Amino acid sequence: MRKPVAAEQVAQLVQGSRKYADIDAALVATLSRSEGAKAATEKDAAKRVKRKLHQMVGAYLDAEVPFGTWLERLRTVPEGERAALCKELLGHHASTRERVAELRDIYDFIFAASAPQTVLDLACGLNPLGRVFMPLPAQTRYLATDVHRGLIGFLNEAFPLLGITGHAFVHDLLSGPPAMAADMVLLLKTLPCLEQADRACGRGLLSALQAPRVVVSFPTASLGGAKRGMQHFYQQRFLETLPAEWSVLQTQVFASELVLKLQRS
Ligand SMILES: C[S@@+](CC[C@H](N)C(=O)[O-])C[C@H]1O[C@@H](n2cnc3c(N)ncnc32)[C@H](O)[C@@H]1O
Fold it and tell me: What CATH number was assigned to the domain covering residues 67-264?
């Protein structure tokens, strides 16, 4: 009988690579177990985990991110140029790069007719840097999560420089949402990403959210720019698997993003 692959050893191999050293250990451990079960050796499993991490995290963020330089620029930028700098930085993550041309329209749609006191932005990427364009009062608490530890460290230093009330923290959504309540949860362009590792995770995640409202979005094209009916495919599959306690209030298709506003019934 074949010796089972040791998940801890797989995780060590993955974390030893500079490219993946900054990813949350809980996510690496989860993937090391699931990919380890499909692989013949630890080396093979580590390769599979790295491929998944690339699809879920690495493909979106620039390879080398100069967080220190960005913080220095945020510290010294004149107030009148701060919004333009945020827009520039949003361009360094593929998800916000696609959103940047229609930032105000998308945020106006998301936050119209709502005044959340707490927003929880799950798998946020650089989206919190768009806070300066969101039609929300300064006192709104903005909480943000992702699995990239360097990104989270950067956001925690950037928030006070941008006058954002709140903080960011590392959290792996494959283990469920963070155990905290919010008035509105943002789950922007994230479900297809999580489904790379767990095809059924979206339903459980939505059921476990402690919030009366959630905004879910999907890209209208792949990272490579191909359209191939993606929007229709995502929308249909999402609605088919939507837990009964959530109902769709409004849907809007933007050039780069399909956005659905949902309410817990
Ligand atoms: C497609 S991007 C979306 C980013 C952001 N929500 C936006 O729309 O601008 C997916 C994000 O999910 C994060 N991510 C990937 N796997 C995750 C996981 N298991 N838990 C939490 N975040 C994850 C990635 O680091 C990346 O920033």
Answer: 3.40.50.150
